[in-house]
Design a protein that fits this description.
Layout lengths: L7 H11 L3 E6 L7 H13 L4 E4 L9 H11 L4 E3 L13 E7 L5 H18 L3 E8 L7 H6 L9 H13 L4 E5 L10 H8 L6 E4 L5 H10 L3 E4 L1 H5 L20
Parallel strand pairs: 1-2, 1-8, 2-3, 3-4, 4-5, 5-6, 6-7, 7-8
């Protein structure tokens, strides 16, 4: 009997333990171009140093998630991971689905309600699900993610609350944490907060929001994040992709 291939989560966990750092690109179906512009965007991602491509967003009205997933799978070697803002973004063909539970808020619909709605379709599609604790962190003004989710983010000045929330999520059995400053955030999550969480829990940490350059990414990686995700910065200036690259390995707990 042969063993099955490692899943996306298996590989993420292995990289977390080896302190290998990964670079994710987030594509929002709402804002993704179409036609020749989409082909060019995906070609640039394919040539970049990105290790993962996430697809999803807080608000999707006109975007076609399923078509974007198909196009990405056709043109990219990187794994394609769904980052759904609603059950309507659950689409076939992706390598993994972040099954997000908004543990930083108190909106029951995003703790379990949407999951019940999506579960039959997820099961029917046979998607590899990654139970993920989704944590919004930030100060006013509210980002789109906070507004759409009807929940207040954890204040940036309350790292102890962020740590306790992360601990609770892992104790509940969540296999991964996604710390998000929100789409278009002007301030990234402090590296000290990421480090405090990384020193407390033993699951991979994904961080997104507010990062615009290689130095931002390295600060977050060195704090303990396994996967750093860039979205809005690339939407504003696609050439930034050419300046970003993952770190193969870092020492643990570099921050003081």
């Amino acid at each position: 009997m042969t063993s099955s291939s490692p899943t996306w989560l298996d590989q993420l966990v292995a990289d977390a333990h080896k302190c290998v750092r990964r670079l994710g690109v987030l594509l929002d179906p709402q804002d993704a171009p179409s036609g020749a512009e989409r082909v060019e965007l995906l070609a640039r991602i394919a040539r970049s140093a990105a290790t993962d491509v996430l697809i999803g967003g807080s608000l999707v009205t006109d975007g076609d998630t399923e078509q974007l997933v198909r196009d990405a799978k056709d043109l990219l070697a990187q794994p394609v991971v769904l980052f759904p803002g609603s059950p309507s973004q659950v689409s076939p063909g992706a390598d993994a689905l972040l099954f997000l539970s908004l543990i930083s808020g108190r909106n029951a619909d995003l703790l379990i309600g949407r999951h019940v709605e999506a579960a039959p379709r997820v099961a029917a599609l046979g998607l590899h699900t990654v139970p993920t604790g989704y944590m919004l962190l930030g100060d006013p003004p509210l980002t789109a993610a906070a507004y759409i989710s009807h929940s207040l983010p954890i204040p940036l000045g309350k790292p102890d609350l962020a740590v306790a929330t992360a601990q609770a999520g892992v104790m509940l059995g969540l296999r991964c944490l996604y710390l998000d400053a929100g789409s278009g955030a002007h301030v990234k999550i402090p590296a000290t907060t990421v480090q405090a969480i990384a020193q407390t829990v033993d699951v991979p940490i994904i961080v997104g929001g507010g990062m615009t350059c290689q130095e931002d990414l390295e600060e977050i990686w060195e704090a303990g994040a396994t996967l750093a995700v860039v979205g809005s910065a690339i939407e504003r200036n696609l050439s930034i992709l050419d300046t970003l690259y993952p770190i193969r390995a870092v020492k643990r707990n570099q921050l003081g």
